Amino acid sequence: MNKSIGALEFISISRGMYVADAIVKKAEVEIIYFKTICPGKFLVIVSGDEGEVDTAIDYGVNIAGKTLFDSFKVHAVSPAIIEGIRSKYDPVEKLDAVGIVETRKVCTGIRALDIALKAADVKILRIYLAFFIGGKFVFVITGTISSIEHGITACKQLLSEGEQENIAIIPSPSRDILENLLKR
Protein backbone atom coordinates (compact mmCIF):
# COMPACT_ATOMS: atom_id res chain seq x y z
CA MET A 1 0.00 0.00 0.00
CA ASN A 2 1.20 3.52 -0.79
CA LYS A 3 2.18 5.83 2.03
CA SER A 4 -0.01 8.71 3.03
CA ILE A 5 0.84 11.82 5.01
CA GLY A 6 -1.25 14.22 7.00
CA ALA A 7 -0.58 17.37 8.95
CA LEU A 8 -2.10 19.55 11.60
CA GLU A 9 -0.96 23.15 11.96
CA PHE A 10 -1.88 24.94 15.19
CA ILE A 11 -1.89 28.51 16.45
CA SER A 12 -1.17 27.10 19.93
CA ILE A 13 2.10 25.28 20.60
CA SER A 14 0.90 23.55 23.77
CA ARG A 15 -2.38 22.39 22.20
CA GLY A 16 -0.48 21.21 19.14
CA MET A 17 1.80 19.01 21.24
CA TYR A 18 -1.18 17.67 23.17
CA VAL A 19 -3.07 16.77 19.98
CA ALA A 20 0.06 15.24 18.42
CA ASP A 21 0.32 12.88 21.39
CA ALA A 22 -3.37 12.01 21.11
CA ILE A 23 -3.27 11.18 17.40
CA VAL A 24 -0.30 8.82 17.64
CA LYS A 25 -2.08 7.01 20.45
CA LYS A 26 -5.25 6.80 18.34
CA ALA A 27 -3.70 5.51 15.07
CA GLU A 28 -0.64 3.64 13.80
CA VAL A 29 1.21 6.61 12.31
CA GLU A 30 4.79 7.82 12.47
CA ILE A 31 5.62 11.42 13.29
CA ILE A 32 7.94 12.76 10.59
CA TYR A 33 7.81 16.41 11.67
CA PHE A 34 7.13 17.78 15.17
CA LYS A 35 8.23 21.38 15.65
CA THR A 36 7.33 24.89 16.53
CA ILE A 37 7.18 27.07 13.44
CA CYS A 38 6.98 30.78 12.82
CA PRO A 39 5.12 32.84 13.86
CA GLY A 40 4.50 31.04 17.16
CA LYS A 41 2.67 28.08 15.65
CA PHE A 42 3.13 24.32 15.91
CA LEU A 43 3.20 21.72 13.13
CA VAL A 44 2.96 17.95 13.27
CA ILE A 45 3.20 15.80 10.14
CA VAL A 46 2.53 12.06 10.26
CA SER A 47 2.88 9.25 7.74
CA GLY A 48 1.42 5.78 7.47
CA ASP A 49 -1.18 3.76 5.66
CA GLU A 50 -4.15 5.65 4.24
CA GLY A 51 -6.73 4.56 6.80
CA GLU A 52 -4.43 5.21 9.74
CA VAL A 53 -3.54 8.71 8.52
CA ASP A 54 -7.25 9.44 7.95
CA THR A 55 -8.04 8.28 11.50
CA ALA A 56 -5.22 10.32 13.04
CA ILE A 57 -5.91 13.56 11.18
CA ASP A 58 -9.70 13.35 11.53
CA TYR A 59 -9.31 12.76 15.26
CA GLY A 60 -6.83 15.63 15.56
CA VAL A 61 -9.17 18.00 13.73
CA ASN A 62 -12.01 17.00 16.07
CA ILE A 63 -10.07 17.65 19.29
CA ALA A 64 -8.04 20.69 18.15
CA GLY A 65 -10.85 23.15 18.73
CA LYS A 66 -10.17 26.75 17.79
CA THR A 67 -6.41 26.21 17.84
CA LEU A 68 -6.35 24.48 14.43
CA PHE A 69 -4.94 26.75 11.72
CA ASP A 70 -4.84 24.27 8.82
CA SER A 71 -4.68 20.55 8.05
CA PHE A 72 -4.36 18.16 5.15
CA LYS A 73 -4.18 14.52 4.09
CA VAL A 74 -2.40 13.34 0.94
CA HIS A 75 -2.79 9.73 -0.10
CA ALA A 76 -0.24 7.97 -2.29
CA VAL A 77 2.13 10.83 -1.54
CA SER A 78 5.30 11.18 -3.56
CA PRO A 79 8.03 9.46 -1.46
CA ALA A 80 10.35 12.39 -2.24
CA ILE A 81 8.14 14.63 -0.09
CA ILE A 82 8.56 12.45 2.99
CA GLU A 83 12.31 12.42 2.46
CA GLY A 84 12.35 16.18 1.79
CA ILE A 85 10.54 16.86 5.06
CA ARG A 86 13.34 14.86 6.70
CA SER A 87 15.88 17.03 4.78
CA LYS A 88 16.99 14.13 2.59
CA TYR A 89 17.00 14.75 -1.15
CA ASP A 90 17.75 12.64 -4.20
CA PRO A 91 20.99 13.64 -5.93
CA VAL A 92 20.51 15.79 -9.01
CA GLU A 93 22.96 15.39 -11.86
CA LYS A 94 21.99 18.34 -14.05
CA LEU A 95 20.02 21.49 -13.41
CA ASP A 96 18.46 22.98 -16.53
CA ALA A 97 16.15 25.24 -14.58
CA VAL A 98 14.64 25.69 -11.14
CA GLY A 99 11.13 26.58 -10.08
CA ILE A 100 10.35 28.16 -6.73
CA VAL A 101 6.88 28.18 -5.21
CA GLU A 102 6.20 30.12 -2.02
CA THR A 103 2.93 29.64 -0.13
CA ARG A 104 1.53 31.32 2.96
CA LYS A 105 0.47 28.03 4.57
CA VAL A 106 2.56 24.92 5.15
CA CYS A 107 -0.31 22.49 4.60
CA THR A 108 -1.31 24.07 1.30
CA GLY A 109 2.31 24.18 0.16
CA ILE A 110 2.88 20.47 0.75
CA ARG A 111 -0.28 19.60 -1.17
CA ALA A 112 0.85 21.89 -4.02
CA LEU A 113 4.27 20.21 -4.10
CA ASP A 114 2.67 16.76 -4.32
CA ILE A 115 0.57 17.93 -7.27
CA ALA A 116 3.62 19.40 -9.06
CA LEU A 117 5.64 16.19 -8.58
CA LYS A 118 2.81 14.01 -9.87
CA ALA A 119 1.98 16.26 -12.83
CA ALA A 120 5.46 16.75 -14.28
CA ASP A 121 8.92 15.24 -14.58
CA VAL A 122 10.49 17.38 -11.84
CA LYS A 123 12.55 16.68 -8.72
CA ILE A 124 12.71 18.38 -5.34
CA LEU A 125 15.88 20.35 -4.77
CA ARG A 126 14.96 21.82 -1.41
CA ILE A 127 12.06 22.37 0.97
CA TYR A 128 11.94 25.36 3.30
CA LEU A 129 9.44 24.57 6.01
CA ALA A 130 8.09 27.58 7.94
CA PHE A 131 11.00 28.05 10.33
CA PHE A 132 12.55 31.54 10.15
CA ILE A 133 10.42 32.40 7.11
CA GLY A 134 7.27 33.64 8.79
CA GLY A 135 5.36 30.37 8.67
CA LYS A 136 5.57 30.08 4.89
CA PHE A 137 6.32 26.95 2.89
CA VAL A 138 8.73 27.18 -0.03
CA PHE A 139 9.73 24.42 -2.38
CA VAL A 140 12.36 24.41 -5.10
CA ILE A 141 12.06 21.93 -7.96
CA THR A 142 14.26 21.22 -10.95
CA GLY A 143 13.74 19.85 -14.44
CA THR A 144 13.38 21.27 -17.90
CA ILE A 145 11.69 24.64 -18.18
CA SER A 146 8.63 23.05 -19.80
CA SER A 147 8.37 20.41 -17.05
CA ILE A 148 8.65 23.04 -14.34
CA GLU A 149 6.04 25.22 -16.03
CA HIS A 150 3.71 22.23 -16.34
CA GLY A 151 4.17 21.24 -12.68
CA ILE A 152 3.66 24.80 -11.45
CA THR A 153 0.58 25.27 -13.63
CA ALA A 154 -0.92 22.12 -12.13
CA CYS A 155 -0.25 23.17 -8.54
CA LYS A 156 -1.50 26.74 -9.11
CA GLN A 157 -5.01 25.32 -9.56
CA LEU A 158 -4.92 24.42 -5.85
CA LEU A 159 -3.56 27.77 -4.70
CA SER A 160 -5.99 30.61 -4.15
CA GLU A 161 -4.67 34.16 -4.38
CA GLY A 162 -4.63 34.28 -0.59
CA GLU A 163 -2.48 31.16 -0.31
CA GLN A 164 0.00 31.80 -3.12
CA GLU A 165 2.77 34.14 -2.07
CA ASN A 166 5.07 34.10 -5.09
CA ILE A 167 6.33 31.86 -7.88
CA ALA A 168 9.53 32.12 -9.90
CA ILE A 169 11.27 30.09 -12.60
CA ILE A 170 15.00 30.52 -13.15
CA PRO A 171 16.22 29.16 -16.50
CA SER A 172 19.90 28.19 -16.54
CA PRO A 173 20.65 29.29 -12.96
CA SER A 174 24.08 30.78 -12.25
CA ARG A 175 26.77 28.62 -10.68
CA ASP A 176 26.56 30.58 -7.40
CA ILE A 177 22.81 29.98 -7.16
CA LEU A 178 23.26 26.28 -7.94
CA GLU A 179 25.96 25.85 -5.31
CA ASN A 180 23.76 27.46 -2.67
CA LEU A 181 20.66 25.47 -3.63
CA LEU A 182 22.59 22.20 -3.54
CA LYS A 183 24.20 22.78 -0.13
CA ARG A 184 22.95 20.09 2.21
> SS-based structural class?
alpha+beta
Helix segment count?
6
Q: Give average pLDDT, whole number.
A: 89
Q: Specify the biggest β-sheet.
A: 4 strands, antiparallel
End-to-end separation: 31 Å
**Fraction of helical residues:** 25-40%
Task: Give helix and strand order, one letter per element, not per position.
Answer: EHEEHEHEHEEHEH
Radius of gyration from the alpha-carbon trace, in angstroms: 16 Å
Strand order in space, largest sheet: 2-3-1-4
Strand content: 25-35%
Tell me the overall shape.
globular
Number of strand elements: 8
Which consecutive residue ranges, at least 5 long each, have pLDDT under 50?
none
Question: What does this entry look like structurally?
Answer:
The structure is a single chain. Helix content is 38%, strand content 32%. Strand 6 and strand 7 (137-143) form a beta hairpin. The chain is built from six helices and eight strands; from the N terminus they run βαββαβαβαββαβα. The chain is of the alpha+beta class and 184 residues long. The protein has a four-stranded antiparallel sheet with strand order 2-3-1-4, with helices on both faces. Strands 6-7-5-8 form a four-stranded antiparallel sheet, covered by helices on one side. The mean pLDDT is 89. The longest helix is centred in the N-terminal third of the chain and has 15 residues, at 50-64.
